[in-house]
Amino acid sequence: xxxLCKCGYRFHDSTDCLSYKGRIxxxxxxxxxxxxxxxxxxxxxxxxxxxxxxxxxxxxxLYQCPSCGRVFxxxxxxxxxxxxxxxxxxxxxxxxxxKRLLISSYGxxxxxxxxxxxxxxxxxxxxxxxxIYPILNIQLDDxxxxxxxxxxxxxxxxxxxxxxxxxxxxxxxxxxxxxAFRWSEKDNE
Length: 189
What we know:
Helix content: 10-25%
């Protein structure tokens, strides 16, 4: 899903682990959620159906604009429609609203992911030949490149830094659509 906030922020929901996206479970479905968890803990042959039921319980996505704090919730009767909520205090717009309501309970210590893509021939949709995409709850700068050596050097600097801080669970570097580097915390335990 892609949409614009009234303030101009452009939402892109085309990957996992977004810091501005969450899922809602209705309080009326909470007990059924725990029933599903109990069912998964027992020996059974139909875990796929249980996982599908859990996914159905978390049926609505919600988004919070990291720029202005507005919240968007999918309409349960028409999931392609979003209902917008604007932060306010006593009927007045609230400029100092927390704009990070949907980040992980681990906050800035959440272990994210690091992706990087290099293209010898710059794609039409991209401003640079090399981009590093951290999916983290901290901000990083200097992540767009047109020089491969600078791109590769910066990727490994960021990777080593984040790995040392225990802030990533995996990292991927692609060069011209081919995997040049892959690291996973699980593979290196």
